[in-house]
Amino acid sequence: MRLLTHNMLTSHVKGAESGYPLILEAAEVILRNVDFNPEFIKRMLSKVNWDVLYQTAKAIGHLNDIPEQLQPNVENDEEFLRKAHHVLLEVEVKEGHLICPTSKKKFQISNGIPNMLLGEESSS
Amino acid sequence: MKLKQLESHLQMVVDTFDKPKISLEQYATTPHIAAHMLYNIDTMYNDIQGKLVCDLGCGCGVLSVGTAMLDASLIVGIDIDDDALMIARRNIEEFELENVQLIKANISDTEFFGGKIFDTVIMNPPFGTKDKGIDMIFLHRALKLASTSVYSLHKSSTRQHIKKKAAEWGAEMTVLAELRFNLENTYKFHKHKSVS
Ligand SMILES: C[S@@+](CC[C@H](N)C(=O)[O-])C[C@H]1O[C@@H](n2cnc3c(N)ncnc32)[C@H](O)[C@@H]1O
């Protein structure tokens, strides 16, 4: 699971307060090689919750030197955009867990695929 | 990438459902339809390249793989079924695509994304022949997730109903193509800024 995806995911356990951000526990991380598109990253910077991105990247040990606070006027700072690109799209948690901060429910990540099912459904 | 090239890529490598589950309406979009649909979305509407795209009910990933080939920045494919997701993963690996994210989830569940995160949603949802109304649930979710457009395949017989619902949800619907192959139709939903 990419950190961009993590940044957007909420848990939806019925009866619990909104579960955001999900706590991310990584057992195995792999690094991808995704084409760098500065326009896309700039657009994402206005959508992502930077604080959550920073804390999560830090927690799994892949901060890649991104700053704790998003600085103004980073649009032309290619070095920064490349770092943000790496953290958002190239760091992938292959095995691990997501934990809902309110209900404490655990969602497994295996083969990079988070399982967001609540456990009531069976898929086969 | 050229249309022909996209179609032959999708034809050559994409594996589809081993044992389709009827209750989940598992049938794959043909490479021909997938390639034409995605190519047009990219070249005519500029809604794929460099975009954050979502594929609801991605199945074995025909649409996700094609979207990734057309250089979406990230394509997020969501399906409820493990077997389908495993085949999708295999397809993604076979093409060495690095810009795909799969998620296992039930589209009928309430929010697991906070708001209009995606630029575009592209999907071939269940038609609702087995689970009545599931097509409209997919569509409603899609409209909540996309900040610009939703592209979706539906049966012609549901067109009037969809048109009415889309208007209720504040979206504008355009029929983009009538496909005789599977008796499916492609629709484009354009978001009105006022909807939230
Ligand atoms: C018509 S198939 C299309 C598959 C794929 N998008 C394609 O174009 O080849 C519909 C897909 O929706 C999935 N599906 C059905 N109900 C679902 C639900 N409630 N939540 C998530 N996925 C679902 C099925 O497993 C199936 O893969």
Automatic annotation (TrEMBL), chain A:
Q: Name one GO molecular function term.
A: protein heterodimerization activity
> Can the keyword Nuclease be found in this entry's annotation?
no
Any single Gene Ontology cellular-component annotation: cytoplasm
Compartment(s) where it occurs, according to its Swiss-Prot or TrEMBL record: Cytoplasm, Perinuclear region; Nucleus, Nucleoplasm
Sorted alphabetically, the keyword list is: Cytoplasm, Nucleus
The answer to keyword tRNA processing applying to this record is: no
Biological process terms in GO annotation: maturation of LSU-rRNA; maturation of SSU-rRNA; positive regulation of rRNA processing
Q: Which family does it belong to?
A: Belongs to the TRM112 family.
**Protein name per UniProt:** Multifunctional methyltransferase subunit TRM112-like protein
TrEMBL record, chain B:
Which SUPFAM superfamilies did the record assign? S-adenosyl-L-methionine-dependent methyltransferases
Pfam families tied to this protein: MTS (PF05175)
PROSITE patterns, sorted: N6_MTASE
Identify the residues that the record assigns to the Methyltransferase small domain, covering every copy: 43-132
What Gene Ontology biological process does one annotation of this record name? rRNA methylation
The Gene Ontology terms for molecular function here are: nucleic acid binding; rRNA (adenine-N6-)-methyltransferase activity
Q: Could you tell me which InterPro entries the record lists for this protein?
A: DNA_methylase_N6_adenine_CS, rRNA_MeTrfase/Polyamine_Synth, SAM-dependent_MTases_sf, Small_mtfrase_dom
Q: Which residues form a coiled coil?
A: none
Q: Which domain of life is it from?
A: Eukaryota
User: What PANTHER family would the database entry show?
Assistant: RRNA N6-ADENOSINE-METHYLTRANSFERASE METTL5
| Protein family (similarity comment) | Belongs to the methyltransferase superfamily. PrmA family.
Name-wise, this protein is Methyltransferase-like protein 5
Q: What is the lineage of its organism?
A: Eukaryota, Metazoa, Placozoa, Uniplacotomia, Trichoplacea
